[in-house]
Fold each of these.
Amino acid sequence: MFRKQIKVLDCTIRDGGLINNHNFDHRFVREVYKAISTSGVDYMEMGYKNSKKLFSTEEYGLWKFCDDEEIKRVIEGIKSKTKISVMVDVGRVDIEEVKPASESPVDMIRVATYVKDIDKAIFMANHFAEKDYETTINIMAISRDQGAELEEALHQVEQESKIKALYIVDSFGALYQEPVERLIKLAKGILKTREVGFHGHNHQQLAFSNTIESIIHGANYLDATIYGIGRAAGNCPLELLIGFLKNPKFDLRPILDIISNELVPLRNKIEWGYIIPYAISGMMNEHPRAAMALRNSDKKENYREFYESLVNANLD
Amino acid sequence: MFRKQIKVLDCTIRDGGLINNHNFDHRFVREVYKAISTSGVDYMEMGYKNSKKLFSTEEYGLWKFCDDEEIKRVIEGIKSKTKISVMVDVGRVDIEEVKPASESPVDMIRVATYVKDIDKAIFMANHFAEKDYETTINIMAISRDQGAELEEALHQVEQESKIKALYIVDSFGALYQEPVERLIKLAKGILKTREVGFHGHNHQQLAFSNTIESIIHGANYLDATIYGIGRAAGNCPLELLIGFLKNPKFDLRPILDIISNELVPLRNKIEWGYIIPYAISGMMNEHPRAAMALRNSDKKENYREFYESLVNANLD
């Protein structure tokens, strides 16, 4: 599948940071940046730009805050055409602290939001656009919000925002390919002057296939992570996506190297991937929070009890 | 997705047997049979019915041969509506050794074949049909055989065979959802009086989504294995398929129990699942043979070299 407009964004450090409190060291992040740059991937997302007034720098690592100086240290001296992205959550960033793009190594700021906070997200994204950043709005937990409010939010984004792309985010790994088709078509139909993106989660082993589905129906901004690292079951594996896209601008080999050298050893220390409680969360269209707690308990392999607890919670 | 005609076939023991020389003990196979029966799955496939003249009983376990007496030992005393299936390969079975269905615990015999051997497969399947077995023909390695010969084979099956269902088998885990759509539509268009089935392999994390894709386009016979066990990257995970189908006849809980109690411990002893050399095989539309050899060598994590060896082999 070759389409010139397609942009791939690697969020290894950002989504991977959700399972280690954003505690990747500079060496690791530099290795990822080198691999991403050499492989020709369009964007690399470094983490969240949260306010230090709201989160403790003792509790969280560097990539929860993404200071410009830390990003400069990572990318220094590495030849690259890859643009740098950071993510902000509605309500967790002090927008006045963010310098204009001309003074920052960051090229793009992505605003993560729920449908209900779309007004705030548009306000924030426009603020960053005025500081000359590329911007996107990423609508999270979309499997819970597929109704009239979503449609209204999409109309607002088209009319009021200056964003480049609107992302559909399947935070719960609950979507099958038919809902992905419906959502991408809906967004494409309303957002006539913007690009549409997709970010999948792999709870039911569907992150890659749903990304393909989004491509088939016109999404051009695609998120992935190396070896699928990310919260809970993780994300669409970058190596599979590059293999599928067959765009001559991409080179798979640097990604294979870093999986061999860094990600396989890392997977022995922290957990992500196909794990039954995450699969159950996806099937039940639930946040993986309860499953993540289970995996940190001594009942981590007690799948039936976990399943029944979710069934019963929904019946109560 | 509820459709009354859908039949799910568990091939945990059969496809799983490909990674342990069919050496599951009676206790394990009984536990699987209990779980499959309690969960309401329609068929359970026990293994291959190969001739002992061709394969050594010292080298291979019981489920390479599937003697009726061994199957009887497994199912004895367990209440079940699940039908029993065995698989035969063209050229590896002595058809005269197979008793009539009325004298056997086996309900269905599935004939695995390549397109080029379709005449032999039809002959064998008809022989078993005359002995009153349900029969299917499973066309393997379909990603290499999508052209005019496949169409001719499908016409022959429709005209000459007595089978119940024709399976599309993605042996190399190379298909994306668009080729699955095309193949299922092709088979449905030609096989007007038969059912169509799908058997996926998970090299690119697409076995489950491709199974959904096949359902969308009318496949009613679906293969899966518990926790996705199977050769190389394994198969479509039964637990995900049951979660998707939402048919009230299925109960997920016995499957969750056996994953907790048997499959998770087994996965620590034998390897299947998302492993990069298998993903590379899938991308390159290659048999996983070379990747399986790599995983048994001291270069098991040397992904770049493996990738380049396949690229170069294709260029030579």
Note: Chain A has two domains: 7-267, 276-315.
Amino acid sequence: MNSIIHIDWNTGRLFGPQVQHSEKKLKELAHIFHDQTAFSALPGDDVIYRVDSFKPVTAGTEGGLFWGTTFLEPGKVGDEYFMTAGHFHHVRNRAEYYAVIEGEGALLLMDESGKTHAEAMQKGSINYIPGYMAHRAVNTGNVPLVFVASWPSDAGYDYETIAHDGFSALMVERDGKPALIERSRA
Amino acid sequence: MNSIIHIDWNTGRLFGPQVQHSEKKLKELAHIFHDQTAFSALPGDDVIYRVDSFKPVTAGTEGGLFWGTTFLEPGKVGDEYFMTAGHFHHVRNRAEYYAVIEGEGALLLMDESGKTHAEAMQKGSINYIPGYMAHRAVNTGNVPLVFVASWPSDAGYDYETIAHDGFSALMVERDGKPALIERSRA
């Protein structure tokens, strides 16, 4: 059937002819980390995260839904934890779910005024990302952070706003623990 | 946090102050089974399915998403397997995901012209329910069929069309196996 895929609930991996695979290498994420010196010392070809995705309808279809699993590696650039690029939805009011299969981390949520807060992500947490919020996952643990996501097929992605201004806060290691700090203090 | 709940991936159960619990008893499902004599002989207070649901925004909110887990008991009314009431979405183009945690069954999908087909549901299957399709889960196994779902918060529910006309096909036991038959031949 066109409309069925399979998931291994232990690993989060998706299987089926319609499943798409993508990956993001460190060198593609240059702009998001605050410590450019530390960034330059790391191998740019390292894969920071992979995504298995299932898009049963064309992007832009109103009323449809997409499904994906993200595998975010553990690690840091300087004192800043590995994280996803992050984005607003192009259609701003579109929400999304993240549901954690394995690992621990944080979900950074920034509203349109630039105010950022963090929510815990841990095995079994189902984080609701409301509309109008830029969202980014951060791996603060020692194993891959694996989470499934479901989001509207007409949400679209606005990476530009984030690429230009970034998030207003960063998740960094302080005294061996994750801490959310204002970008201006990093 | 208002926007976080937790799931036990082994059982599908949802936890958190915002989680709502509902149940459907056999007597509330009288109209959906074809064998009314067999129905009358069964205890009407038996719970056929339970739903844990998470609705972080008001029903009707455009762009939002709901999440739920359904626990559908095994059993039959005569030769017809236990199943959910089934519905179209009130906003017809709204899609939905069913992702199976445990058990085995079938997803009945009926289009607006009354044509019904069935897809397999088994542990790890992620079934995409396109817009414009009435949907109903059927437990054809010996253990509860447990699946998580994600759907738009403005989808709404149209149970009326199904209550009046039913699905055009039934999932019944034939020679010890599930078979989809036209209602007119039941």
Note: Chain A has one domain: 6-185.
